[in-house]
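re: that chain from earlier
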Amino acid sequence: VQLQASGGGLVQAGDSLTLSCAASGRTSSSTFWGWFRQAPGKEREFVAYTSNRGSSTYHADSVKGRFTISRDNAKNMVYLQMNSLKPEDTAVYYCAAASYYVGLSASDWRYWGQGTLVTVSS
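^ sequence. v structure.
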């Protein structure tokens, strides 16, 4: 599975941004997709995941109510809608995929995109 994240950029606090992740290769509707982020000097942290077929989603407390993950299985795409962005959301955002639910630790997710930088100015 190859993942390609896009949509990052420089925005101001309070703005919105949508990240996209395109998957290719051996993908299927049973794949779990997630978003993680890594700020400078910090470990990669979980942001959100969507279950197979998009039947359930889970968001980290730090983004709950502001970010929304969604997927389009027909297009092999997953999105992260980010609203009310804060400077502390500044990070490189990565999409990830797994063949089954593996938890919220980045080290347990098998497939990774290259990351897209989101910078939120105050």
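DSSP finds no helices and eleven strands in the chain.
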